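testing teh design pipeline on a random one, pls ignore if ur not involved
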């Protein structure tokens, strides 16, 4: 199972694809190389490839895909900002949940899948050290050599004395006792795209036509039909299914010997994911902090995301033998993990630091920012006590 890097689909300026910033000559050259790579596969495949395969290639093709190449992605100078990039508050709250889990296990490891810039790893290690509960080791599952180097640089800069505790993995370990963590991970995984036609369910493919990538429809295979038909969606409805994310959860279930799988991402329960008014699905692209809905342009230069169907994720985890421990909004989870207590420690006299903290809280918790769209779901094996982040407001009943 490949590793997928994490990223953000929070509040971003929406743009018409025609008004996006221009690309440099270097960017265009890079994109052209990836276009040729994708066109070769389309040709070998008889003229079209499933959108999920297109998404896999443009995001992860070795040396060329968005997450596999060297272009900056995270932070103000990239294409999006993740919660850890806002500041350390997110990691400080998460550390308190990790402390509870590791304490109940009398120690253990942390495995972070898709660690982005390394900001979460660095801040989480620093806070866990201050809480006196460092993991035995902190493993990062990351295939991108460029991101590995960036993560190591971040950790070396922020927590040099803890770098020796961090290890990078090419594949999931045979087993882990502790915590598996995925922050804004699942949305980056290749998604099937479908459309409900008057005569049945169609799967969307990508072809090359008139010197550009274009959509092509084919009758959907049986698994897509089985997922979509019971939803009774109206003709014209277009959306996504993320088999990759569900398969990844099952793989992590096999890896988790004892402990907790904790996932933070943006999405909905299935009833909301396929809401009658969400007729164009959830697919979204990000380029230089502008969001638009055309994944067939800026190949290799833009992020492509789809929201998470948490009902599917819950079924994948429990179907693989894990116990569903909780599901809630990011705001409720962070409050349960001590956000208000941490905020109360801020000195209002230190105007700059206090203002920065206030801005972090707003971004992380307000409903129109990340607080409501982002959800947290937890699975466990041999981990029984109620988790801090879900005590106040658990929404498992909505799944």
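output:
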């Amino acid at each position: 199972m490949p590793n997928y890097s994490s990223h953000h689909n929070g509040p971003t300026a929406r743009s018409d694809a025609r008004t996006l910033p221009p690309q440099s000559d270097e960017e265009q050259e890079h994109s052209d190389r990836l276009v040729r790579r994708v066109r070769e596969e389309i040709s070998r495949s008889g003229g079209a490839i499933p959108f999920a395969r297109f998404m896999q290639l443009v995001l992860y093709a070795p040396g060329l895909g968005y997450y596999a190449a060297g272009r900056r992605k995270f932070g103000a100078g990239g294409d999006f900002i993740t919660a850890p990039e806002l500041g350390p508050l997110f990691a400080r709250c998460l550390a308190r949940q990790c402390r509870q889990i590791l304490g109940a296990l009398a120690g253990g490891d942390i495995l972070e899948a898709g660690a982005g810039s390394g900001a979460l790893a660095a801040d989480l290690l620093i806070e866990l050290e201050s809480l006196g509960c460092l993991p035995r080791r902190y493993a990062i599952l990351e295939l991108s050599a460029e991101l590995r180097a960036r993560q190591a640089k971040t950790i070396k800069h922020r927590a040099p004395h803890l770098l020796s505790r961090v290890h990078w993995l090419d594949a999931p370990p045979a087993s882990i006792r502790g915590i598996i963590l995925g922050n804004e991970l699942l949305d980056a995984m290749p998604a099937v795209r479908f459309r409900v036609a008057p005569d049945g369910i169609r799967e969307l493919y990508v072809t090359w036509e008139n010197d550009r990538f274009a959509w092509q429809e084919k009758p959907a295979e049986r698994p897509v039909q089985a997922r979509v038909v019971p939803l009774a969606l109206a003709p014209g409805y277009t959306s996504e299914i993320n088999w990759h994310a569900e398969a990844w959860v099952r793989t992590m279930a096999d890896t988790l010997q004892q402990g907790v799988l904790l996932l933070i991402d943006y999405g909905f329960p299935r009833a909301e994911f396929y809401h009658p008014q969400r007729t164009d699905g959830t697919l979204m692209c990000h380029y230089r902090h502008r969001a638009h809905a055309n994944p067939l342009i800026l190949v290799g230069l833009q992020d492509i995301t789809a929201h998470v169907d948490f009902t599917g994720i819950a079924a994948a985890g429990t179907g693989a033998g894990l116990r569903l421990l909780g599901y809630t909004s990011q705001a409720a989870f962070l409050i349960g993990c001590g956000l208000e207590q941490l905020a109360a420690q801020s000195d209002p006299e230190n105007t700059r630091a206090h203002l920065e903290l206030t801005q972090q809280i707003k971004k992380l918790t307000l409903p129109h920012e990340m607080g409501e769209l982002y959800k947290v779901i937890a699975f466990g094996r041999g981990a029984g006590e109620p988790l801090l982040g879900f005590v106040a407001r658990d929404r498992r009943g909505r799944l």
